[in-house]
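Regression test case RT-17, inverse folding.

Input:
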């Protein structure tokens, strides 16, 4: 996941208007990488070859984000931010099965819940980011200072604090999910030391 700030402010020598109370703006794009195989073990190997990398490690799925901030610096007797908004663009990358018909029925039945598990997992990361964006908007809209330069510095500090807090929430969520991932029937099946179907014998990597 990435959280890249792009800050766009305009200055205005007018009285501040009422603060916006709308939700952060967000868009979500789903992208897929193809995987194929004749068993759960082969599909697992395909995900390890073709899946995204997150912080240098191979992953089954990922969520990346690009965030931007916009607002007006309103300067009168003091400076504050008006119409402050956060916009986040999400890209969720997931595996997509290419040859479902070639899988044995057991493997196929376990793949579908696993794919749904991955999608829910990544969408929860999205929800965590949106919660952090709401916190950022709320805190930023309360910032006032004598000069607009001071307001921008305070906003940078809030952004950094919220980002670190958000990273910790993502890490905690991933730790909690790890045991559930390991218990997924598809993963259990894919990582069996050796398994023979009616058409083939498949070994784990």
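Golden output:
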């Amino acid at each position: 996941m990435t959280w890249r700030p792009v800050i766009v402010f305009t200055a205005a020598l007018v009285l501040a208007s009422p603060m916006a109370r709308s939700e952060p703006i967000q868009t979500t794009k789903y992208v897929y990488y193809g995987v194929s195989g004749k068993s759960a073990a082969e599909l697992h190997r395909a995900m390890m070859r073709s899946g995204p990398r997150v912080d240098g490690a191979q992953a089954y799925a990922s969520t990346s984000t690009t965030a931007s901030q916009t607002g007006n610096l309103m300067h009168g007797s003091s400076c504050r931010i008006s119409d402050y908004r956060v916009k986040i663009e999400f890209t969720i990358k997931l595996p997509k099965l290419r040859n479902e018909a070639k899988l044995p029925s057991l493997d196929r039945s376990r793949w579908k819940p696993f794919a749904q598990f991955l999608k829910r997992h990544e969408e929860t990361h999205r929800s965590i980011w949106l919660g952090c964006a709401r916190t950022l908007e709320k805190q930023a809209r309360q910032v006032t200072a004598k000069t607009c330069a001071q307001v921008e510095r305070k906003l940078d500090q809030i952004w950094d604090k919220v980002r670190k807090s958000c990273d910790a929430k993502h890490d905690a969520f991933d730790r909690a999910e790890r045991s559930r991932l390991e218990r997924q029937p598809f993963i259990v099946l894919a990582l069996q030391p050796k398994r023979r179907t009616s058409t083939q014998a498949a070994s784990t990597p």
